[in-house]
């Protein structure tokens, strides 16, 4: 472990502790409360959350709402510390690699357990529960980039109340999952019990993945400008980021390239910080940045303009940057 992580843990642990419920952890009708975290154990949770920053972003949630305190759509992921510094009432996480089953009622539980054969008797994975309502809970799973390639769109749209069962399914960087802190009504807290917290995050079992595949194939096929469209070609290697494993970057019929951001390969890892319209040199010629999102940078073949600086002469001549 690096000293940076140690420093992180010292700052972050008390901030995370502030989001834990006071009246801690739901007590069942027999008066048994669930295993609690001690403050000595909290740094292990914090360390895991910090590790997740390599593919997840964190969002601060406003008191009395489920809304983030910051804009996040089409923005890069924010680290844990940035979210905690906003002193949120609750904390949310988002990632294209996080799959969430959100059980809104006993109907959802019954559907998943009985009709889909999903094991809900606390197998080892990350559960998010509520201190005030034991019928509402979520399970998060980790889905690798390789596994996402099995989906026609590389993600699924936010699926609410699937087949009228009160089961919601999310697998998209556009969704976020509140996992710790106060519920919007102020009566309960989101929490994870020890052993079923973020450190237990695991890939989905077959029954869960089958459900995701079913939902994914019911969705409309991706429009031609979407990732992984059927007319696009996987790049090996990608001329932008040089990715030559887990092929995930693609070239479209119009010549544009979707260059996907991974932890090993990304456009910015190869070319430094990028801005829209910036031109980069590649082995396949010049490409200009057309759009930037957390998951992907889109490039278009660069067209040299004949009149390169048409407006230069209309610019004021004074050098405003001169030091006085
Ligand atoms: Zn690429």
Written description of the protein model:
The chain is an alpha+beta fold and 324 residues long. The chain has two domains: 3-218, no CATH class; 223-324, no CATH class. It has helices spanning 3-17, 42-52, 80-84, 106-115, 145-148, 206-218, 267-271; strands spanning 57-61, 90-94, 98-103, 126-130, 137-142, 156-159, 167-171, 177-182, 189-191, 233-234, 250-251, 257-260, 279-282, 285-292, 296-301. The strands form two sheets. A nine-stranded antiparallel β-sheet has the order 1-2-8-9-4-5-3-7-6. Strands 10-11-12-15-14-13 form a six-stranded antiparallel β-sheet, with no helix packed on it. The longest helix has 15 residues, at 3-17. It starts with a helix and ends in a 23-residue tail after the last strand. The relative contact order is 0.11. The chain binds zinc ion (ZN). The site of zinc ion has 6 residues, from loops.
Average of per-residue pLDDT values: 83
Q: Compounds present? A: zinc ion
Detail the poorly predicted runs: 312-324
Alpha-carbon Rg, integer: 23 Å
Category by helix and strand content: alpha+beta
Strand content: 15-25%
Proportion of helical residues: 10-25%
Report the biggest beta sheet as strand number plus sense, adding barrel if it closes.
Answer: 9 strands, antiparallel
Return the string of H and E elements: HHEHEEHEEHEEEEHEEEHEEE
Return the domain count.
2
Number of helices: 7
Roughly how many Å apart are the termini?
Answer: 49 Å
Strand order of the largest sheet: 1-2-8-9-4-5-3-7-6
What's the total number of strands?
15
Shape: globular
């Amino acid at each position: 472990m690096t000293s940076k992580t140690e420093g992180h843990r010292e700052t972050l642990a008390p901030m995370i502790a502030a989001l834990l419920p006071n009246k801690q952890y739901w007590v069942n009708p027999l008066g048994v409360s669930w295993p609690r975290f001690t403050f000595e154990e909290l740094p292990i949770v914090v360390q895991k959350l910090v590790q997740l920053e390599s593919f997840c972003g964190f969002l601060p949630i406003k008191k009395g709402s489920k809304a983030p305190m910051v804009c996040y759509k089409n923005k890069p992921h924010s680290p844990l510390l940035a979210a905690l510094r906003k002193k949120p009432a609750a904390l949310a996480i988002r990632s294209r690699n996080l799959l969430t089953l959100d059980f809104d009622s006993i109907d959802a539980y019954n559907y998943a357990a009985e009709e889909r054969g999903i094991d809900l008797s606390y197998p080892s994975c990350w559960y998010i529960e509520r201190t005030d309502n034991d019928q509402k809970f979520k399970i998060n799973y980790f889905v690798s980039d390789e596994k996402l390639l099995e989906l026609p769109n590389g993600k699924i749209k936010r699926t609410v109340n699937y087949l009228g069962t009160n089961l919601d399914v999310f697998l998209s960087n556009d969704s976020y999952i509140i996992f710790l802190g106060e519920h919007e009504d102020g009566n309960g807290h989101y929490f994870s019990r020890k052993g079923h917290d973020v450190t237990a995050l695991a890939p989905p079992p077959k029954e869960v993945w089958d459900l995701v595949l079913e939902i994914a194939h019911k969705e409309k096929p991706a429009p031609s400008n979407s990732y992984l469209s059927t007319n696009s070609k996987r790049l090996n290697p990608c001329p932008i980021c040089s990715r030559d494993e887990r092929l995930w970057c693609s070239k479209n019929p119009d010549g544009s390239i979707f260059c996907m951001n991974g932890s090993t390969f990304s456009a910015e890892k190869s070319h430094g910080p990028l801005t829209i319209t910036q031109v980069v040199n590649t082995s396949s010629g010049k490409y200009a940045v057309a759009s930037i999102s957390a998951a992907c940078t889109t490039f278009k073949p660069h067209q040299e303009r004949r009149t390169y600086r048409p407006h230069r002469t209309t610019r004021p001549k004074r050098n405003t940057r001169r030091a006085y």
